Amino acid sequence: MWLSSEMQAPACRGSGRRALEALLLAVLATLLGGCGFQLRSDPVVPPEMSRTYISTDDRYSLFYRMFRTQLESAGAELVDSPADATAEFAILSDETGQRVLSVSARNVPTEFEVYYTVYYTVRNGEKVLLEPQIQTLTRDYTYDETRVLGKAREEELLRKAIVEDLVRLALVQVSSIR
């Protein structure tokens, strides 16, 4: 059966569009591969840190607890003494808090910023494997005095998210030790 050109046009446009999309996808994949882009994989602990001692003044801080768990998950054996370790991850400073960002006309806080700062280094005896690093991340949230309990929970969740990001940053830096 013979079809008019008007009846064939939508089918041709659809297959041409799919071909163009496939071509664009192939070009994009080639460009991403050519620039060195790679999907992020789990951090790998370098051999120098196979047996790691974590030194800190506060073994109950959120950063210490999360970092310890993630370092073990990445394959490091954590030891209780620097003498038994191949490397020492030293948490030099670990602090968190919040600051007021804005206040209402009645001088009541309406917006807060939660911050978390860690300062750390990695050593193998006297040899520094990772120069001292300071990382600070912040998140802000609005405050409503009528919803105090909900806002306290929001602050807690923001602080946990910040620490997860800091731990991820620290592990990426540790995995680059060579």
Question: What would you say about this model in short?
Answer:
This protein has 178 residues and is α/β, with parallel strands linked by helices. The protein is 39% helix and 31% strand. It has three helices and five strands; from the N terminus they run αβαββββα.
DSSP helical segment count: 3
CATH architecture term of the largest domain: 2-Layer Sandwich
* Rounded Rg: 26 Å
Order the strands across the largest sheet as they lie in space: 2-1-3-4-5
Q: Which CATH class of the largest domain? A: Alpha Beta
Report the principal-axis shape: flat
Helix proportion of residues, in percent? 25-40%
Q: Would you tell me which CATH topology of the largest domain applies?
A: Double Stranded RNA Binding Domain
Tell me how many strands there are.
5
Mean pLDDT, all residues: 85
| CATH homologous superfamily placement of the largest domain | Lipoprotein like domain
For the biggest sheet, the summary is: 5 strands, mixed
Task: Note poorly predicted spans.
Answer: none
Structural classification: alpha/beta
Q: What order do the helices and strands follow?
A: HEHEEEEH
**What's the N-to-C terminus distance?**
71 Å
* Proportion of residues in β-strands: 25-35%
Instruction: Count structural domains.
Output: 2
Task: Describe the protein.
The chain is α/β, with parallel strands linked by helices. The protein folds into 2 domains: 1-39; 47-175, 2-Layer Sandwich (Double Stranded RNA Binding Domain), CATH 3.30.160.150. Helices cover 39% and strands 31% of the residues. The chain is built from 3 helices and 5 strands; from the N terminus they run αβαββββα. It has helices spanning 5-34, 62-73, 148-175; strands at 51-55, 77-78, 87-103, 109-124, 127-142. It has a 5-stranded mixed sheet, with helices on one face. Strand 3 and strand 4 (109-124) form a beta hairpin. Helix 2 (62-73) packs across helix 3 (148-175). The longest helix is centred in the N-terminal third of the chain and has 30 residues, at 5-34. The radius of gyration is 26 Å and the shape is flat. The model has no long low-confidence stretch (mean pLDDT 85).
